[in-house]
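explain this.
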Amino acid sequence: MYPEQIVTPMRAELTTAGFEELKTAAQVDATLTSKEGTILVVVNSVCGCAAGAARPGVKLALENAGHKPSKLTTVFAGNDAEATAQARKYFAPYPPSSPAMALFKDGKLVHFIERHHIEGRSPQMIAENLKMAFDQYC
């Protein structure tokens, strides 16, 4: 587990953009069992690609998207272990990945961005990927 004083600003990058933190398995289940609307789940992390690409990319996508998910949520890998493990159960068949982004529509996983699709990509590339998914599913 990372010291909370280190992850607090990383959490805030998403919560100030409107994301709700899911910190328990029960919160994850209550959110992801919803059969209505679209839900974006960002698996946040302390790694460089989360800071340099994932968080800026998702925020950029939300600022410039014509369509947006109904609900924005996040779990923090390495700190919210129970919530992250539970969220990953909903991401099957994708293996554990952090950072990562999952878009659900009416209770079904419809779009997933794994770490290897984030590493080495610019925030703009990630934003474009997300905006295309938002336009298709939201």
